[in-house]
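Example 3.2
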Amino acid sequence: MGHWAGVIASTENADGIWPGSAHEARRFILDRLPGSAPVDGISAEADRYARAEEPAVLADLDLIEGATFSAIPVVCPGDPRPESRFAAFLDGTQQIGIVNQIEGVPIVWATVAAAIRVRVNRRMVAWTARTPAVAKRFYVPFRYVDTLGDLRADPRIVDTGNETDRGTIPSRHPAALMEAALQRVQHDRERLEQELAEAWCAADDRMLYVDGGIGTSAIASQADNVVGVIKTHRKLYAAGAAFRVLVHLRAGERSSVFRVSSRNRFPVASWYVRVRDATGHDSLFGLVRIEASETADIASRADEISRWIIAEGAPLALPDSRWDKMAYGIRDTEEFLRAIS
């Protein structure tokens, strides 16, 4: 069942009950870490410091469909409403904040969770083959905290003082330490999502809609029944003339298919879909990027999958602010995760 097996039930440790809330986490550290002080307003503090997003860039295309990057209609005005073949939805969440500090070093408490929800007779229910995964952990830079003692040996206290994704050791600056912690929290959430996606591939052949990319998993990136949907676009695969094509995509159109790969990802086929009319909105309104396994018939698969994605635009995922790009099944999964974590 993998590294995260059973994390939803991991609440006991040698010293008693593992914290279940930010208040309990704050008290836990005060009792065990001499010299620490509580920090209130953890959400605000985390939001202020933890902006570890990638820079906004335009990337060159590795085109695998056609000779030029083009707009391709998949649903035309007057067409019958498309139907979706997605049977289930996978999403993960994270909650992160500072609960304590010691000599200026933030002690971070975070909860990561992931679940698959299955659509049965138009209702969303929990996937019975695997329970949702919820993990609650502290994130502490060991190199800057000398009084951790035996807490260093607890796997639920994560060392964030090691080399980051950028190949550097975080400085003692609180913002640098928060960024390092956020990276680790994001990795932990992605690992939960990856293990659930791989469990679905092993147990079910129906179509799974994943909120986010699938290229981190060797299994999911090659599975014909897993589709990743990316709603945020820090990196746009549309340098040069392709940019104009992309921003002028109309509702019901997709882009040509291209390949996405990197040193830390498995290659996948990808393309953009405009799921809603962007008239009167910014150029990224209603725009999602799809990731799927690369197959010989990827062009026809891209048409079919795009129609499913467009069909998932109803009912609206209101009142979520991302309603223009979010499938209702993903909103349901997020609400479910908030309720259990």
